[in-house]
Amino acid sequence: MRLCTIKQDGREQAAVVTPTGIVPVAAINTQLHKSWPDELHALIRQGIDQRILADAGQTTVRLDPACVQYGPLYRHPRKILGIGLNYRDHAADLNAPYPTEPASFMKCDNTIIGPGDTIELPSQSERVTAEAEIGVIIGRTCRDVSEQQAPDYLAGYCLILDMTAEDILQKNPRFLTRSKNFDTFFSFGPELITPDELPDVLKVKVGTYNNGKLHRENVVANMAFPPYYLVSFHSYVATLYPGDIISTGTPGAVVIRDGDLAECRIEGLGSLSNPVRMRSGTPRGA
């Protein structure tokens, strides 16, 4: 099953993606007298139920995917965990030592944008990169679980563009939080893809694109720490809650500039793109 968030009637609301079009959850509730949460984060917290897909098939509302405006999947996860240097090739790109355990960091919800929203380049940085990643979304409260148990705790997967003010990070590794948390530095969507749609995540190919050109791609199997391991590892650090996101690392970061179009493409899952603009206000170097 595939779920998304669309902008309709002045708000962002959950919808079900079907072969014949997009069905807002609000339409399901109205036509079938159901009470599904019509905000995606709330739906995840309740527990994604395949019966909502059957309900969507019984409604008469069908929106053309080419005509809807997508939002980020949701705005306020409790946690966004990013993973650095999870592909060996990416570590080599940065002349960085290869980590022997997950190199994780936190992002705040002020960074969140959705498909088509603008990535704003901050005046404090002269070198911002965009990084395509596959995201893991937690489906139920998860603490001290094994790698083998991890799949039972997933709501699904999504596409991510994670941005970094790379020049700030290179000044001092302790500036990681600052370099990762400028507004608009985390795009995710357009769909949440449930695990049944992706029977073997290790075979998935993730690509970072800029202006339609491939910068770098790799297969999830080439991660040092694959998705289920990351879920298990971090569940021993802190309890993971429904809607928490683990952004699993990029095959390659591309420098983005004013006027560019950054894009994540994941084989079988789709694409996510965002235009790039200089943030209005204080110019760089002022």
What does this entry look like structurally?
The protein folds into two domains: 2-57, no CATH class; 80-278, Fumarylacetoacetate hydrolase, domain 2 (Alpha-Beta Complex), CATH 3.90.850.10. It has helices spanning 25-32, 40-46, 51-57, 88-93, 166-171, 176-180, 227-235; strands spanning 2-8, 11-18, 21-24, 80-84, 103-107, 112-113, 119-121, 128-138, 154-165, 186-193, 205-210, 213-219, 245-247, 253-256, 261-266, 270-278. By secondary structure, the protein is α+β, with helices and mostly antiparallel strands.
Strand content: 25-35%
* CATH topology descriptor of the largest domain: Fumarylacetoacetate hydrolase, domain 2
CATH class of the largest domain: Alpha Beta
The CATH fourth-level homologous superfamily of the largest domain: Fumarylacetoacetase-like, C-terminal domain
- Average predicted confidence as pLDDT: 94
Query: What is the helix content?
Result: 10-25%
Low-confidence stretches: none
For the termini, the CA-CA separation is 49 Å
What is the overall number of helices? 7
* Count of distinct strands: 16
Radius of gyration: 19 Å
Shape: globular
- Assign the structural class, choosing from mainly alpha, mainly beta, alpha/beta, alpha+beta, or little secondary structure: alpha+beta
What order do the SSEs take from the amino end to the carboxyl end, as H and E?
EEEHHHEHEEEEEHHEEEHEEEE
Instruction: Report the biggest beta sheet as strand number plus sense, adding barrel if it closes.
Output: 11 strands, mixed
Return the CATH architecture of the largest domain: Alpha-Beta Complex
